[in-house]
Amino acid sequence: MGVEWVLVCHGLVTLLVVISFLCGQWPIFQGTFVERIHYFLTSGFYDYLLRFVGFLCGSRGTNAILSVEYFCCDRPNPILQLIYVVILGATYYLVVKSSFVYIPGYYLGESHRYISLAAVCVGAVLFLLTSFSDAGTINSENVSHYLSAYPYDNILYSEKECSTCRIPKPARSKHCSICNRCVARFDHHCGWMNNCIGERNNRFFLAFLLWHFFLCVYGTAAIVMILAGRMVDLKVIHILTVYYGIEKSFRSLAPHVVQWLLSSYNTQILLMVFLAIVSLLLAGFFGYHAHLCLTNTTTNETFKWQDYLSWQRKLNEAKISAEALKASISELRKEGKAPVSKWKSFFRRSPLEDAEVVVKTNMYDKGWVRNVGEILHPLSMRQSFRQSKVHNN
Ligand SMILES: [Zn+2]
Ligand SMILES: [Zn+2]
After folding, report:
1. Could you give the residue numbers annotated as active site?
2. Best label site of 11, 166, 212, 246, fewest CB within 10 Å?
3. Which domain, by its residues, includes 69?
């Protein structure tokens, strides 16, 4: 097998593993091998490993693995932060080492050497801002402030106290069991940032996702430009058509050009494929979070709404079924009434179809302009709520 096929297979396997790991639980992959790979990568592999270690080393080995899992997944730790720094640094280093020699080139000016460095630095600054800024920690000092900024909707949130922090729990907040603190407008705990994503750092997190998406698109486009420039500089098309007598059409030239690129510029091709895959994933992730931002919902609330809506639907169906049962019993008891024909009752509309449609009434959704405004300038940081705190005191 040629080196180009090894590279193509490598790219496809990487794509499959990354998509299965990140998106395998999505409904469209239900029952497919993508879902099975997702299960294997997220829990199946770990179960086999635990059993294998238990078989070899007994309970001491299993306990050691469980304590590593506890440290990695249930306690704050910088492992994923370090992995991010290594990925960013290694990718930029490989781009510099393999491609800067062709800058300036036919299509790229010298300024791209500095623009790319500046773009990576901005990405790193956004990472630091999201990781080390306050997500909106609630304590006894500032709780009144958050209580006035976030009123209860009495659907998902009602007056409650955090059983760990022993302070009132403002609406939209959640106690993060990893960081052991209550966080305002809690979205999720992000392992990559080793921080919660909450009211105060959601804007940095969104900017981080959007910037890294553009960074990957920029990297992919820059490598495409470099390779296109090399083709022009080395007169590849001219050599192929004049010296090798290949027909001057896209169909005839494309396989030869691809073969030449894969054999001469395999590092750049690998980097380009990697950046393109990551940019697609980041686009999906940013799109999801932008939708949450526009509708003023959090990741935590999407799960709460799902539970609430399915519970309401079941409740309505149970109510309708009970009423239908009651009606049919009283119908049977009525004397002298002609029985309903079997055909008629067969085609009769199911009473469950009359069940009230459950709608999501999110009182925090105030239109996309104000919703975006709340992300950019969090409610608890606004003067009006600061004044209400002073007033309450
Ligand atoms: Zn708490
Ligand atoms: Zn947390």
Report:
1. 190
2. 166
3. 30-74
